[in-house]
Amino acid sequence: xxxxxxxxxxxxxxxxxxxxxxxxxxxxxxxxxxxxxxxxxxxxxxxxxxxxxxxxxxxxxxxxxxxxxxxxxxxxxxxxxxxxxxxxxxxxxxxxxxxxxxxxxxxxxxxxxxxxxxxxxxxxxxxxxxxxxxxxxxxxx
Length: 141
Hints:
The protein is mainly β. Helix content is 9%, strand content 52%.
């Protein structure tokens, strides 16, 4: 009986959804990345009507403990530190980026999504100020 309880408890903990990133865009849609176990999930759209939903492995299968391709954490580029996670679907790539300020005026930072089709940028949608929730540290646990 005790073994069944702990087995059930472990399954419940493993299935817990953890918010990694979320914001409302200037187009009145929501960008969201969450994690359940070793999978990450991306969605874009309104609560009940998602335009795009994609999932991928958090880690590479060939190198244990190494993030999958398209996951770049705490990368420094010029005056910025940013976290980027990209998701592929058909010929589209959805690149969610959250920049953090380092000695640069706040209007210069970009958090939002770039959409590319066949390697060519088609869209750039910015998050609305004050709606950004970041928890990229949760990917390291």
